Amino acid sequence: MNLQFVVDGLLAGAMIGLGAIGVTLTYSILRFANFAHGEFIAWGAYAALTLTALIGFLVGHDVAPLGPFSFGWPLIVAGVIAMVLTGVLALALDVVLFSRLRARGNAIIMVMASFGASLALRSLLEFIFTSQPVYFSRELQIAIPLGAGMKATPDQLLTFGLAMVLVVVMFLVMSRTTIGRSMRAVSENPALASVVGVDVEGVIRATWLIGGALACAAGIMVGITVQVRPYMGFDLLLPLFAAAILGGIGSMPGAVAGGLIVGLAEAASVPLVGAGYRGAVAFVVLIAVLIVKPTGLFGRRE
Hints:
Strand order of the largest sheet: 1-2
Largest sheet: 2 strands, antiparallel
Shape: globular
Radius of gyration: 19 Å
Structural class: mainly alpha
Order of helices and strands: HHHHEEHHHHHHH
Oligomer: single chain
Number of helices: 11
């Protein structure tokens, strides 16, 4: 049996898990499902693409790819800047829209507002860049044999490794830093956290910044290994929520584990039932989890 689907599933799952961290943080701290999160993925990818082109223009000559990879150093610089900008975009959306609705204390209104924000951001992106897919690079790569019939390109291996590094960094931030402990406290009980001196508003701002930055990183990885287009975030939205719910809302390790499971399930469905049904797998996983274990793998019952 060809085990290539394992590699494909792990690669897709790492990106899904990275994006799902932002979903689970937003839900656990702000208490609402943000359907605009997928658009942060697309906006981050386009921001990195635009900045890469700008840096190339300022340099004034073609930049050679780094080693076996399909891109050069401008993408690395652009990626870091794009992560900051996407975090600022997420924070700006909160300041303009969600903070005003949060004061009313109605989560349903915030969910519906996130739907509207998602449509607006996606339409604006399509208006600016058109619906045609674009690429960070068109350099051809030779897949590296990994054994057991599995192969992966250098770009794919790099993005998987980078996703795991970001996950470890986030784990350390949440467990070893003051802002991480504050975020966990607000997630458990916002009122009590405020009483003991936690800056709840500062935690909320940090949540948007981190969530947006991680979404941007996921978008860049998808762009490097697949392509960049306005609907890329929308296509990932259901897998993101499936991963967050599967792992347990509020659990960062759960979001990553859920992403890997969803990615593997989608990849396995291609040789088993055909590529046409791949998109339905995340929905099936989501429904199954809600029926069997609503709290998810690492979630706790409130």
